[in-house]
Structures are given as structure tokens and as C-alpha cells.
Amino acid sequence: MLGSDELTVVVNTADDDRFYGLHVSPDLDTVMYTLAGVSNVEMGWGLASESFRTLERLKEYGVDAWFNLGDLDLATHLYRTKMLDEGKTLSEVCQQLAKSLGVAHKILPATDGSIKTMLETQDGTMSFQEYFVKNRCEPIIKSIDFDGSPNCTVTPEVRQAILNMDLLVFCPSNPFVSLAPILSVPGIKEMIETFSGKSIGVSPIVGGEAIKGPAAKMLKELGYDVSSVGVARQYVGLCNTFIIDQKDVALKEEIEALGMDVFVTQTIMETDQDKKQLAEYILEISA
Fold first, then answer.
1. What 3-state DSSP class applies to 262?
2. Is 2 part of any domain?
3. Sheet of 141-147, strand order
């Protein structure tokens, strides 16, 4: 739909972590595998036709292997870790991996620095992967922090992309652990707040429920409305346009009162056609 010179994806890296001695970048890999057409659609992460024999052997050795990495997926992390150990930046590594998989579109980590999402819960402090994978999002969240972000800098590639763009889209992701980590990188939030073009946010909450993941649970536990309104309030000053699902049409005026233009359409994407339809709609209202 959009050529490689028309679309740039800026990705959260605060979920990155080390597992079994390897640097793993879950969000970067999900975007890369999806654009390469090799993602595991059923699981929502990793590669298609995956096996887990290496992980099974690690467990036989007594390793607490709670974070699943497939045998094919391991090659990505082995190669990434090797290149990082050789002194390459995460941006350079990402470019090389994407190129090897035939992905022409730019996939950019928000920063090359080290940033890590940490959650303060009623069960103690834990990383995002410990919360999301090991504990299955069960602990009650009290607060979220992004360790290392004050020491990070926006990459030249991301800075240039923001300066050159005429349309900014916040995909229907979790505002607390997908968008907020990117905004915590010094300089990025300010660039977005002063962006003069059209900036569009798509609500990840439909009918009071998350399309995917723990966004609704997080909104409730952090004291926000579990609705498109609750999400829109997180985007004030960042988006001038907000898209909600048809099920939430009754919330349109309340979100407009926040100073946003609100559009209503089908946002739940169950098929490739649904994804294409939403993308076409976004391009249409931004023209």
C-alpha cells in the first residue's frame, strides 16, 4: 500500500531484554517478521512453522526457560547479539536483519540506548517480560517506569523521519508500555508535540475492552477510564485526530471536548482485508 520511501515504523525497545545470553528485541522482531511475511499469525509473535527443541533441551538442563524462543527465531537473536558485541548500534543491526529478510521499509528503534520498562506491582518490581510472559499479566500494577530513558538519545534516523513526515500515526497499541516508552526518550515527545502535520491516534480499546493485551487492565489499575476516552486523554497534545470503533460512537463528543477531531469506523482487525481497510481509511482522512 505504501512504498518503502513512504512508510517508516518507529518501534519501542523498552521490552528488550537478555535471555539465555542473547539480546532479544520482541517489538522490533514482530514488526520485521510481519513486514517480511514470515510471522507466526496464530501465536502473534515469532516465526511461522516454528519448533522449540532448543528450549526443551534447556529445560532438561534445569534452566528456568519461561521465555519462549523458537529454534528459527534463535538465529535472529544470535546474529543480533553478535553484531551488537562487535560494536554496531541497534539501528544498524535492525537495518541489516530487515535487509536480509527482504524488508525494504525502514524499521527504526526509538533509541540505540538502553531503556527498560519496569513495573511496580503488588507482587514487587518486575520487568515487562516478567510481568507479561512469566506472570501472564496477573500482578496488579501500581506504577510504570522506564529505566535508563534519561540517559538515552533519539537516533539521527528517527529525528530525520519525524522532521520529514507529513502524517504521524499512533497504531492501536498500549499507551503505557508501547507508546510511553518511546515518548520517554528525551526529545521525541517535544518533536511530536510541535509537529505541524496531521497526527492520528487509533484507540486500542473497543467497547471497554482491549483489542489485544493488557491495556484495559492497566487503564483500570492506574486509575483511568477503561474506554476510548481514557486512551484519548493519554494522547492530548500528541494527536489532533482520534479514531474510535463504531461500538464507541457514543463517546465521540466526549473525546472531541479534549480538542481532537474524532472519526468513527471499524477498527477491529481480524483479517488482512480489515487491516487494509483501516489503513486506507487513515490515509483517506489524512489527505
1. strand
2. no
3. 124-127, 116-121, 141-147
Range of the structural domain that residue 73 is part of? 8-109
pTM: 0.95
> Is 228 in a helix, a strand, or coil?
helix
Here the cell at position 119 is 513495573
- Rounded to an integer, what distance in angstroms lies between the CA atom of residue 72 and that of residue 67? 15
Confidence at 44, pLDDT banded by 50, 70, 90:
confident
Q: What is the mean pLDDT of the chain?
A: 97
Q: How far apart are CA 138 and CA 167, in angstroms?
A: 37
- Calculate ∠ Cα 197-202-206, nearest 5°: 160
One-letter amino acid of 186? P
Are residues 161 and 281 both part of a single domain? yes
Angstrom distance (rounded) from CA 161 to CA 225 = 33
Quick check: 287 pLDDT over 90?
Answer: no
Mean pLDDT of 201-223: 96
Within a domain: 123? no
Q: Could you identify the residue written with the cell 511496580?
A: 120
Q: Per-residue pLDDT averaged across 129-136, rounded? A: 97
Q: What is the pLDDT averaged over residues 211-230?
A: 96
155 and 279 together in one domain: yes
Q: Fill in the DSSP letter of residue 181.
A: H
User: Can you tell me the mean pLDDT for 62-91?
Assistant: 98
C-beta of residue 130 within 8 angstroms of C-beta of residue 141:
no
How distant, in Å, are the alpha carbons of 6, 77, 144, 249 from that of 256? 29, 44, 28, 12
